[in-house]
Specification:
Order of helices and strands: EHEHEHEHHEHHEHHEHEH
Number of helices: 11
CATH superfamily: Aldolase class I
Radius of gyration: 17 Å
Structural class: alpha/beta
CATH class: Alpha Beta
Oligomer: single chain
CATH architecture: Alpha-Beta Barrel
Largest sheet: 8 strands, parallel
Number of strands: 8
């Protein structure tokens, strides 16, 4: 039986004061025991989060990491080994903003996935199509290509050591969201693609949805059979909203 997972991506938001306030709110939440809970703060605030959330069920994630596990001359990068040392258990890999704004290719994303696994992190592999690609009927092709490079290197078993996050690019930060049925169609397609390679492992892979997930749409999304939770953006910056989303996953 797959557990649900709800992860909050804070992106480039926060100050020491606002993070302290947000963490205080998170520590007041009634967290569901059956849901894996994760936040991805900016790297500067990981230690602050670790200290404030000690004893909490909320795990930490990096928002990105380097393509190599070992130390090196990569000014400005953070290695997955450093994230692990700082207390992270997860790391986002291949978020659409990293792909579109920083030029991360499928091959780079695969290297980041590999480096994360090598350091004992669970990579959250982000995949998704643009509005233009969706309107052209290319969703399956685009998402399949983004998955394929990782599958070729690690197989479904390797992918099951991480998490897949389907994030339609057109729904990230726009206020738009896929309907539960639209999201389920893509999640079902992803799981079906994995099942063709390894049906047993495919049933174990956590596939979460990201794209303007909010408390008022979370329950309907998470009720879909192949949606195992959410990767939450802006709503994760509000403790009560994030807590409500997590509890919706617990009821799914």
């Amino acid at each position: 039986m797959r557990r649900s997972l709800v992860a909050g991506n804070w992106k480039m938001h926060g100050t020491r004061q606002s993070v302290e306030t947000l963490l205080g709110g998170l520590n007041q939440q009634d967290w569901p025991e059956e849901v894996d809970l994760v936040i991805a703060p900016p790297a500067l605030y990981i230690q602050q989060c670790r200290e404030a959330l000690e004893g909490s069920p909320v795990s930490l994630a990096g928002q990105s990491s380097a393509t190599q596990a070992e130390p090196g001359a990569l000014t400005g990068e953070v290695s997955p080994a450093q994230l692990r040392d700082a207390g992270c258990e997860y790391v986002l890999v291949g978020h659409s903003e990293r792909r579109s704004l920083f030029g991360e290719t499928d091959e780079m994303v695969c290297k980041k996935f590999a480096a994360a696994l090598a350091c004992g992190l669970r990579p959250i592999l982000c995949v998704g199509e643009t509005r233009e690609q969706r309107d052209a009927g290319e969703t399956a092709e685009v998402v399949g290509r983004q998955l394929q490079v990782v599958l070729e290197s690690f197989g479904v078993g390797g992918l099951a050591q991480g998490v897949v996050a389907y994030e339609p690019v057109w729904a990230i930060g726009t206020g738009l969201t896929a309907s539960p049925e639209e999201a389920q169609d893509v999640h079902s397609m992803i799981r079906g693609r994995l099942a063709m390679l390894d049906d047993e492992q495919a049933r174990c892979v956590q596939i979460v949805y990201g794209g303007s997930v909010k408390a008022d749409n979370a329950e309907a999304l998470f009720a879909m059979p192949d949606i195992d939770g959410g990767l939450v953006g802006g709503a994760s910056l509000n403790a009560d909203e994030f807590g409500a989303i997590a509890r919706a996953a617990g009821r799914a």
